[in-house]
Specification:
mainly beta; four-stranded antiparallel beta sheet; 0% helix; single chain; 173 residues
């Protein structure tokens, strides 16, 4: 039973949220609550065809409305599914996948961002200055102080992309 479940009692009970979300097959989902207004919740949903995409709730996740089915948000969803909201402006949303996208209108329209390396995995947004954020990718991490117009280099850090580590139970491993 995939989907989104919501608790309002600290996790003692959970209710499945279904209003406005795809009713058939769904896969991986990422949820982001806007720090500036907890009524605003975004869900990036893996689902077939046009049912997949970005959904928005304005009632703390009780119901959702699809705002975008843009395929760039769901490229390789088994690997990437990440949505983040600007901590001071609930209209500004970021999606990380093979591409890295920003929307200034709650996910209706998207602009591709251009950090020094692709395959975007994670992001930290400074809660006091949302123009300052760090984007993590296959090449390392990049910092911007101007909302992504310019980026720090990746040539100042030893970085490795490790997919698998094997050890035995001897000491030392």
């Amino acid at each position: 039973e995939g989907g989104i479940y919501k608790s309002v009692d600290g996790g003692d009970t959970w209710d499945k949220v279904s209003k406005g979300l795809p009713s058939n097959l769904i896969g991986k989902i990422d949820v982001a609550v806007c720090p500036a207004d907890s009524r605003i919740v975004y869900a990036l949903v893996e689902a077939p065809n046009k049912e997949g995409g970005l959904y928005k709730s304005v009632d703390q996740g009780a119901s959702f409305t699809q705002v975008s089915d843009f395929g760039g948000l769901r490229s390789r969803p088994f690997y990437y599914t990440k949505i983040l909201v600007n901590p001071q402006d609930c209209e500004v949303v970021y999606s990380l996948a093979t591409g890295y996208y920003r929307s200034d209108n709650s996910g209706k329209d998207w602009q591709r961002m251009n950090p020094p390396h692709g395959d975007s995995h994670d992001m930290w947004i400074n809660p006091d200055n949302p123009q300052l954020f760090i984007q993590a990718n296959d090449g390392g991490a990049n910092v911007t102080h101007n909302g992504g117009k310019t980026w720090s280099t990746q040539f100042n850090q030893p970085t490795a992309e490790i997919y698998q580590v094997e050890v035995d139970d001897q000491f030392p491993y």
